[in-house]
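Quarterly update from the structural biology core.
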Amino acid sequence: MPDHREDHNSLLSSEELDALTAFGHGGNADQDRDRLFMLKLQLALLLSMLSATLMVLFPDRVVYWLQLSVSTYEADNSMTIFRGMVVYCYAAAVMICWTRFHKCELLLGAAAIIATLNFLMDLPYLWLYALSHPSFTLILAVLLRVFVIYLLTSLTLNLPRSTYLPRRIFINPFQYFRH
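Predicted structure, tokenized:
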């Protein structure tokens, strides 16, 4: 098999490829846990910011895209915009807390609880009609929200075991090695 590590057009460096190869295959369990934690944190923030951006910039399109037939949401998108702004504020609070303080359990736990309750409150009010007529976009939105809830819950539960992580948001987990 040819070795693609010599290819200079590759998206990943040889160190990143080695880290990906060693990930979960007998490597350092602490480093693997830390890398997975950073990936989950980055994914949760990225998906939350993406959904908030869509809610704030295109509230009418979000309602149309999910094929919701609730007249109050079709008539007034202020609630969708407000919810997008709340997601922005909470994501900013998580980023500030992560980079400045070492105790983030309460904030991440609250984010997981808020995301779960927000999802459960949306089910009967917004998606009652849509659940009886399922669509691909609705299933995608539900899976996205469940995935973010999983990420936030996993981050909250694994934070005490990941104490040596760098306190930066934008870091490549496969280049980071603890000394």
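Residues 27-161 form one domain.
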